[in-house]
Design goal:
This protein is mainly beta and about 300 residues long. It has helices spanning about 80-90, 215-220, 285-299; strands spanning about 75-80, 105-110, 110-120, 125, 145, 150-160, 165-170, 185, 195-200, 205-215, 235-240, 255, 260-265, 275-280.
């Protein structure tokens, strides 16, 4: 059987599918005319739209609700910072708590490059890998610190020795901000399977409730990074198995209780569907050095 007229219309809409009924007419979009002497089964024009399937987040689950344990297997609980504060404070979710923060952003030439934690009125703790490894020391005047309400503070000095993977930024003057207060340093060594809270600041500040895992998992996660070295002064925390949820940056914090126990060294090294480990400098093992520096510069 010969077909004198053949028109093929392919319509693909992102996230929307519709079956045309007998009375519906297909939209006449980019349809070419068939030549008078066209051959049977001849396709004049084929239009194809290739649209990537959008990532869709699963429905939000309340951490306090009965369905909290019904998450899909091998996934972790990621919740926004403001919700975390409400859950830990026991307040109603309709009330915004008055929380004092210790988070700081590290800016280089007015661009955010890392995050950090205020550990005294003049010192901010971050990753040493935020600063280039050159023969000369990083120049402090190129760096700024941003606190709450977009307030910008000048840096007087960058302290790298003898902290290995940690660094301290010294403020030119003691920080006075009603919305900021220093966070305490880790006072006990962490052990494998301890519950911790991972800060993620690459896009929007979020928390990941997770646990410590063996450093061998981080060796696999960082195998492709020739600049990453894993030592006994580091901690490995379980990150999400979804790449889209891995939003850590250098200097992001690892908290145990209400104390900072780890500082993200290298930033995000995740892949989809894997047991991802995030590498942190162990704050407890540097506690003695940090306390000496705090005492020195506070006085």
């Amino acid at each position: 059987m010969l077909l004198e007229n053949l028109v093929i219309i392919l319509v693909i809409s992102q996230g929307i599918s519709k079956t045309l009924g007998p009375s519906d007419s297909a939209p006449q979009m980019n349809v070419g005319d068939i030549p008078e002497n066209g051959q049977a089964f001849q396709i004049v024009r084929v239009i194809e739209y290739i649209v990537p399937y959008p990532y869709q987040r699963p429905p939000k689950i309340s951490a306090r609700g009965p369905s909290g344990g019904a998450r899909e297997p091998n996934s972790l609980e990621i919740i926004p910072a403001e919700i975390q504060s409400l859950l830990t404070s026991g307040q109603a979710t309709t009330i915004k708590p008055k929380v004092k923060h210790f988070l700081m952003r590290v800016l280089y030439e007015n661009k955010v490059i890392c995050s950090g934690a205020l550990i005294s009125s003049r010192l901010v703790l971050t990753s040493a890998h935020c600063f280039p490894r050159t023969l000369s020391k990083p120049q402090a005047h190129f760096y700024k610190l941003q606190a709450s309400r977009s307030r910008i503070y000048s840096v007087a000095k960058i302290i790298l020795e003898p902290l290995e993977d940690l660094a301290l930024l010294l403020l030119k003057s003691p920080l006075q901000d009603a919305f900021l207060q220093p966070i305490e340093l880790c006072d006990t060594p962490l052990r494998r399977s301890d519950n911790v809270t991972m800060y993620m600041s690459a896009k929007h500040l979020r928390f990941l409730r997770t646990k410590l895992i063996a450093n061998g998992n981080c060796k696999r996660s960082y195998a492709q990074d020739e600049n990453a070295f894993i030592t006994r002064t580091m901690l490995c925390a379980l990150n999400s198995n979804r790449l889209v949820d891995c939003q850590t940056s250098k200097g992001d914090l690892l908290l145990h209780g209400d104390r900072v126990c780890g500082v993200d060294i290298y930033g995000q090294h995740c892949s989809d569907g894997a047991v991802n480990g995030e590498l942190y400098a162990d704050v407890f093992k540097a506690r003695t050095q940090l306390l000496r520096l705090i005492e020195r510069y506070e006085n």
